[in-house]
Design goal:
Four Helix Bundle (Hemerythrin (Met), subunit A), about 0% strand, globular, mainly alpha
Length: about 120
């Protein structure tokens, strides 16, 4: 299992990729998905620092609900938008959805603050 530092590096790599996707307006679907996975890695870094790792979204979602209630609504929003982007109809996800996801991600990111970096 990756350690907390590896998860933080993945989150940083996602952020670098996201910058390009958003600046060039390449794909709202990918932008939403990348934001979600950036949040996944921040969450996993936090859990990893406590010796806990999740192998599925279901278990991670349950753990977030139990152990991180402050971010559960934002994390769920990211999860739901990402699922819609990956498995829904493409026309359902647009840049306004990305804006909603960015707000949700900011809440997750702010919760961990500099401790997660």
């Amino acid at each position: 299992m990756p350690d907390s530092a590896a998860h933080l590096e993945k989150a940083a790599a996602n952020e670098r990729f996201l910058t390009r996707v958003v600046e060039d307006r390449l794909s709202a679907e990918w932008a939403v998905t990348v934001l979600f996975y950036q949040a996944v890695h921040l969450v996993e870094a936090w859990f990893g620092a406590r010796g806990v790792h999740h192998r599925s979204h279901v278990r991670r979602n349950q753990a977030v609900a139990k152990d991180l209630p402050e971010i559960v609504a934002s994390y769920r929003k990211l999860h739901d938008l990402s699922r819609a982007a990956r498995y829904g109809h493409v026309e359902l996800i647009g840049w306004s959805d990305y804006d909603d996801a960015a707000i949700a991600f900011a809440a997750v990111d702010d919760h961990f603050g500099s401790d997660a970096r």
